[in-house]
Design a protein that fits this description.
Layout (H helix, E strand, L loop, with lengths): L3 H29 L4 H28 L2 H19 L5 H11 L17 H10 L3 H25 L2 H7 L4 H23 L24 H20 L2 H12 L3 H14 L1 H14 L1 H18 L6 H28 L6 H26 L6 H21 L24
Helix pairs in contact: 1-6, 1-8, 1-10, 1-11, 2-3, 2-4, 2-15, 3-4, 3-5, 3-8, 5-15, 6-11, 6-12, 6-14, 7-8, 9-15, 9-16, 11-14, 12-13, 12-14, 13-14, 13-16
Length: 418
């Protein structure tokens, strides 16, 4: 199934390209449409409910019917969501469109597009296309592709400002980009079509399951769910609210933000390729723990920066270190999961993150009215708890590729609990 990689890479590139400029322009579009910070937070929270339902649906649908079909359906929903955004500013239509289409959602600059309901369909297909020894490397490569595409997409965020300088209204300028994202969604369907699945994972007999997995599905989902819930609370304070924070704190417009996010995407490209080396040396769990700890330190320094570009540099370093551990974390989850239920594990372990991330924007948006830096400090607090919880939950659970490696806890692999 290695031929699937090129189509998965292409799909990620298109998604990351669109996500990069949508993440920048979506909250700014709401702002020029008359939405307050609290109302912007409310839009993100309500649309997040729809995203949660989609995430759960993909987890079940992907394992039972097929992950390729899930990718195609989500791409079509993204097309519809973007199309609605080109014609309406109505509150409830915006909520519905952004929820179904993932408009303005992505994981932020440097994330490589690894976010949202499509995640549980894509990750198992990647894991099945390669050997366990090469899994983290492939996860790093697809993030590398995504982040470079995101760098190009971030440049597109400057288009509304250029159009406005030529007499086109801000609202119309933003809506034209939503139309462009609808076109990209059609291309996403086209590159997903050639992906081949020999049969649905649900059709596998129980005897075909990998009996060497070190933890059962319920335990794995529960532990990932707990750690992701904390991470979701932290990320919810950032996301699109971060572009609004830059806008309020430093007066940064779409052109400056687009340039910053382009630089961040380019700077975080190489760390994705280095992730497998760090994971081989430290072990996946320690690689994730160490790199995330350093990234949180840089995030905590942002409010102390006197200028936009110094704050941007701090955020860039935060994303560089976060990127070093991201492929290891994603690969690790797939490596220790039963292959029959990988979509379910990816979806339901991330559901708590989606749920908790819905709470943070409305809280952060409201608190920004009186304490502008509140979202940054909220993110630091919960992301720190996430790192601690992740390490203690998985420090003794070793994926197959580390069984004979230099990992210091390889002898502590747990048996599968049935």
């Amino acid at each position: 199934m290695s031929q699937n990689l090129k189509w998965l890479y292409a799909n990620r590139a298109l998604r990351s390209f669109a996500t990069a400029f949508l993440t920048v322009i979506f909250p700014l579009y709401l702002a020029v449409s008359g939405y307050s910070a609290a109302r912007i937070g409310m839009v993100l929270t309500l649309s997040g409910i729809i995203s949660v339902l989609l995430l759960a649906g993909v987890g079940i649908f992907g394992d039972k019917v097929g992950r390729k079909r899930a990718i195609i359906i989500l791409s079509l929903l993204s097309f519809l969501g973007s199309l609605v955004m080109t014609t309406s500013r109505d509150f409830w239509l915006i909520v519905l469109a952004s929820g179904l289409g993932g408009v303005g959602k992505g994981g932020g600059a440097g994330s490589g597009g690894s976010w949202g309901p499509l995640f549980p369909a894509e990750q198992p297909l990647l894991a099945e296309a390669v050997t366990p020894a090469n899994r983290t490397k492939v996860f790093g490569r697809i993030s590398f592709v995504g982040v470079l595409a995101g760098a190009l997409g971030s440049l597109v965020a400057a288009v509304p400002e250029l159009l406005h300088e030529h007499g086109i209204s801000w609202g119309t300028s933003y809506q034209l980009l939503f139309g462009f994202s609808a076109v990209l969604s059609i291309f996403m369907v086209m590159v997903a079509w050639p992906i081949r699945e020999s049969r649905s994972p649900h059709a596998m007999r129980a005897t075909e399951a990998d009996e060497s997995v070190p933890i059962n599905v319920k335990q794995l989902t529960g532990r990932l769910g707990l750690t992701n819930a904390l991470n979701g609370l932290g990320f919810g304070f950032l996301g699109p609210l971060l572009t609004y924070w830059f806008y309020r704190r430093y007066g940064a417009g779409p052109a400056e933000l687009g340039t910053l996010y382009t630089i961040i995407n380019l700077a975080t490209a190489m760390p994705y390729l280095l992730s497998s080396k760090i994971s081989q040396y430290l072990g996946a769990v320690r690689a994730v723990t160490y790199t995330r700890t350093i990234s949180i330190i840089w995030l905590a320094l942002m409010p102390f920066m006197p200028t936009f570009w110094l704050a941007g540099l701090s955020y860039l370093l935060r994303m560089v270190f976060n990127s070093l551990g991201m492929p290891a974390r994603q690969s690790y989850a797939m490596g220790v999961a039963d292959q029959r239920y990988r979509s379910r594990v990816a979806a339901f372990s991330n559901l708590p993150s989606q749920l908790t991330s819905m709470l943070s924007p409305v809280i952060g948006g409201s608190e920004m009215e009186s304490f502008l830096d509140f979202p940054i400090y909220g993110a630091v607090f919960f992301m720190t708890l996430n790192v601690l919880a992740y390490y203690f939950a998985f420090r003794h659970i070793v994926p197959p590729e580390e069984q004979n490696g230099p990992h210091p806890t390889r002898h502590l692999t747990h048996p599968v609990v049935k």
